[in-house]
Specification:
CATH topology of the largest domain in chain A: VC0802-like
Shape of chain A: globular
Helix content of chain A: 25-40%
Largest interface: A-B, 20 and 17 residues
Number of strands of chain A: 7
Oligomer: heterodimer
Radius of gyration of chain A: 16 Å
Structural class of chain B: alpha/beta
CATH architecture of the largest domain in chain A: 2-Layer Sandwich
Largest sheet of chain B: 9 strands, mixed
Distance between the termini of chain A: 15 Å
Strand content of chain B: 15-25%
Largest sheet of chain A: 7 strands, antiparallel
Number of domains of chain B: 2
Number of strands of chain B: 21
Shape of chain B: globular
Low-confidence stretches of chain A: none
Number of domains of chain A: 2
Radius of gyration of chain B: 22 Å
Low-confidence stretches of chain B: none
Distance between the termini of chain B: 56 Å
CATH topology of the largest domain in chain B: Rossmann fold
CATH superfamily of the largest domain in chain B: ANL, N-terminal domain
Strand content of chain A: 35-45%
Mean pLDDT of chain A: 90
Strand order of the largest sheet of chain B: 4-3-5-6-7-8-9-14-13
Number of helices of chain A: 5
Structural class of chain A: alpha+beta
Mean pLDDT of chain B: 93
Order of helices and strands of chain A: EHEEHEHEEHEH
C-alpha cells in the first residue's frame, strides 16, 4: 500500500535541480509529484516518480546522494474541509505528520496528498477505518 | 627490526658526545664556507669556538625561511657546485622556491635515514612499496625511493595521478606498503570504492604517510577504510626531506634521527629554549649535512619532545605527531584556531565524510567569519530534513566546544570538494582579499 518516495540532497548552487531533472528525463522517468524543503545552504528534493527503482539507480550513478522513504498517498475530497477531516482522523489516532505535499495531477474530484508520517501502518489503518482511500504504490506510479 | 641498532639504541651520554663533536664541526664549517652564517654569527657576537657544550647552541641565531629565500638559489650551500650532485626545491607556491643541494655523502645519509624510518614502520625486503609522491623537485618521491630500495623492498615508483591505475597496480603487483600523503590515501579508498573494489580487500599492510599534518582521528579513518597500519613520518626539505623522524609500530611519537639532526623546542614568541615535555616550535640543526647544512632552523611546526626510551627499544627522542604549524594557525576573532582541531571534530561524526574545507571571510567588512564545508556520508543519508539539521547542530556544538569560537557548518554533497594527489588544501582565507 505504501508509496516509494525518493529524497535527493541538493546543495544550493545553480544547476543542481536541472541536473536531477535532466537525468530523469534521459531515463524516460516521469515525475508525478515533487516538493522541496530548503535552508540557505541545502535542500532536499522529494519526488514521486513512475519508476522509483530506476530513478534511484540513475541518480546514484550520477553521484547524487539519494535515499528512499515510504510515504502514503491519500485521496482527499476536493472540497472545503476535505483535508481538515483527514488531518483530524490522523490526529485522533495519535499519528505525527513530518510533512505533506499535494500531487500534481488528480483523480476525478479527489485531490491526492502525499503524507510522510512516523507510523505508516498506523496511519493507513486509521484512515481506512474512516473510509478514507489510501492508494496503492502501483496505482500512484501509473497515474 | 632496527636498521642501525647501534645508533638508534645508543645511550644518552654516548649520543650527546657524538652530537657535540658533530655540532662543533658544523658551526665551524658554516662559519668558514657560508658568508651568510659568518655575518649572522659576527653580528650576534658569537664565534664557533664559543660552542663547548650542546647547550651553547642556544646562543647562536636562528635561521628562518626568509633567510633561505633571500639566498636563492645557492647562497647557503657549503660546498662548491662540483660537489653537489642533486638539487631539490620546495613547492614555493608564493615567490621563489627554496633550493637545497646534496653531496654524494648526503644522498647516502638520506637513503640510510629513510631505511631507518621504513624499518621502524615495519617495512622489510619482503614488501612491495608503491610510492605515490611526485618524482621531481619535491623531496618526497626520490627521498622515499632510494631509502626503500636500500631496505630491499620492491619499489613501484607510481608517482602521482591516475588514481584508478594506482589501485590497479596495488592489486596486480600485490603492493603491501603505501607511501603517500594521508589525504591521498583516503582519496584512494574512495576511488577504489567507485571502481567496485572494496578498499579493505587490497593487499596493503602498512602505510607510510607524511608531507602534511594529520590527526589521530584521521589515522583511525584511514586504517578502517584501507585495513592497514598507518604510520606517520616527518621531514622538511630545508633540513633533509623525509627521514628526519618516523613512527615505529608502537606509534607513540616519531623517533627523531638525533645523531643527524639536533632538535630544540622553543617558545615561538620569545625564542626561548623550552625543557623536554613542553609544547613549542621545533628547531633543527643538521649535524652531518655537507651540501646544505642549517643552523637552528625554525620549522614553525608545533610539537613536544619526549626522550624516554621507547617500548620498541630505540632511545632516540620522540616528537609528538605534528598537529599544526604556526603559520597554519588561524586567528579568528582573536582566538587561535588550528585546522587540525576542526579535523579531529569532523572525524568523530559518522554522518559526514573525512573531506572538508575551512573558509574564513570577513562579514560586514570587520567580523571574522569561520565556515566549515563538510561532505556528507552517502551511507548515512536518511532523506530526513531534521536529521541533516541535527548533524549540522551537532558539529557546530562540538566545534564551539573545541575552538571556543563559533563556526558555521555547511553540509555539501559527497565528492563535491576538490581532491588533491599531493598536499591537501584545506583552508581558504579570504580576509585579505580586497
Amino acid at each position: 500500500m505504501k508509496v516509494k518516495q525518493i529524497s535527493i540532497f541538493l546543495e544550493n548552487k545553480s544547476g543542481r535541480l536541472a541536473d536531477v531533472t535532466r537525468t530523469l528525463g534521459r531515463e524516460d522517468i516521469n515525475i508525478r509529484a515533487l516538493s522541496i524543503a530548503d535552508t540557505t545552504d541545502f535542500g532536499i528534493l522529494r519526488l514521486i516518480v513512475n519508476r522509483p527503482e530506476e530513478a534511484n539507480r540513475a541518480l546514484k550513478e550520477e553521484g547524487f546522494m539519494v535515499s528512499e522513504t515510504e510515504v502514503i498517498a491519500v485521496d482527499v475530497p476536493d472540497r472545503p474541509g476535505g483535508l481538515a477531516h483527514v488531518l483530524e482522523v490522523l490526529g485522533e489516532a495519535g499519528i505525527n505528520i513530518e510533512y505533506l505535499y499535494a500531487f500534481i495531477g488528480k483523480t476525478s474530484d479527489e485531490a491526492l496528498v502525499i503524507f510522510r508520517v512516523e507510523n505508516c501502518d498506523g496511519a493507513m489503518h486509521a484512515l481506512q477505518a474512516k473510509n478514507i482511500k489510501v492508494l496503492d504504490g502501483n496505482e500512484v506510479y501509473a497515474l | 627490526m632496527i636498521w642501525e641498532k647501534e645508533m638508534e639504541t645508543a645511550g644518552r651520554d654516548e649520543l650527546r658526545t657524538a652530537q657535540l663533536l658533530r655540532l662543533k664541526q658544523v658551526v665551524h664549517t658554516v662559519y668558514e664556507s657560508v658568508p651568510y652564517y659568518k655575518e649572522q654569527f659576527d653580528s650576534h657576537g658569537i664565534h664557533p669556538d664559543a660552542l663547548t657544550s650542546l647547550d651553547d647552541l642556544a646562543k647562536f641565531p636562528f635561521t628562518t625561511k626568509d633567510a633561505l629565500r633571500d639566498n636563492y638559489p645557492f647562497g647557503l650551500f657549503a660546498k662548491p657546485m662540483k660537489d653537489i650532485i642533486r638539487l631539490h626545491a620546495s613547492s614555493g607556491t608564493t615567490g621563489k622556491p627554496i633550493v637545497v643541494g646534496y653531496t654524494e655523502n648526503d644522498l647516502q645519509t638520506w637513503s640510510g635515514l629513510i631505511a631507518r624510518i621504513a624499518t621502524m614502520a615495519g617495512v622489510t625486503r619482503e614488501d612491495v612499496a608503491q610510492i605515490c609522491f611526485s618524482y621531481g623537485l619535491f623531496t618526497g618521491g626520490f627521498g622515499l625511493h632510494y631509502g626503500l630500495e636500500k631496505v630491499g623492498a620492491t619499489v613501484v615508483p607510481a608517482s602521482v595521478g591516475n588514481t584508478e591505475k594506482q589501485i590497479m597496480l596495488i592489486k596486480d603487483f600485490n603492493v603491501t606498503v603505501l607511501v603517500c600523503t594521508p589525504s591521498y590515501a583516503l582519496y584512494m579508498a574512495e576511488v577504489a570504492g567507485d571502481m567496485g573494489v572494496d578498499p579493505r580487500t587490497l593487499p596493503l599492510k602498512t602505510g607510510l604517510f607524511g608531507a602534511e599534518p594529520w590527526t589521530e582521528n584521521m589515522r583511525v579513518q584511514i586504517e578502517e577504510r584501507l585495513n592497514l597500519v598507518a604510520t606517520d613520518n616527518y621531514g622538511l626539505s630545508e633540513i633533509m626531506g623525509p627521514g628526519v623522524a618516523g613512527e615505529c609500530r608502537e606509534r607513540a611519537g616519531l623517533h627523531i634521527n638525533e645523531d643527524h639532526f639536533l632538535v630544540e623546542v622553543i617558545d615561538p614568541n620569545t625564542g626561548e629554549v623550552l625543557p623536554d615535555g613542553s609544547e613549542g616550535e621545533l628547531v633543527f640543526t643538521t649535524l652531518t649535512k655537507e651540501g646544505f647544512p642549517v643552523i637552528r632552523y625554525r620549522t614553525k611546526d608545533i610539537s613536544v619532545i619526549n626522550r624516554e626510551r621507547c617500548a620498541c627499544g630505540r632511545t632516540t627522542a620522540r616528537m609528538r605527531k605534528v598537529s599544526g604549524r604556526t603559520d597554519d594557525m588561524l586567528i579568528i576573532r582573536g582566538v587561535n584556531v588550528f585546522p587540525s582541531q576542526i579535523e579531529s571534530v569532523l572525524m568523530e561524526v559518522a554522518e559526514v565524510a573525512p573531506h572538508y574545507l575551512i573558509v574564513v571571510d570577513k562579514k560586514k567588512g570587520y567580523l571574522d567569519d569561520l565556515e566549515v564545508h563538510v561532505e556528507l556520508n552517502r551511507e548515512k543519508f536518511t532523506g530526513s530534513f531534521r536529521d541533516l539539521e541535527d548533524v549540522e547542530k551537532k558539529i557546530s556544538r562540538k566545534l564551539a566546544n573545541v575552538l571556543t569560537v563559533s563556526a558555521r557548518v555547511k553540509l555539501v554533497e559527497p565528492k563535491s570538494l576538490e581532491r588533491t594527489m599531493g598536499k591537501a588544501k584545506r583552508v581558504i582565507d579570504r580576509r585579505n582579499d580586497a
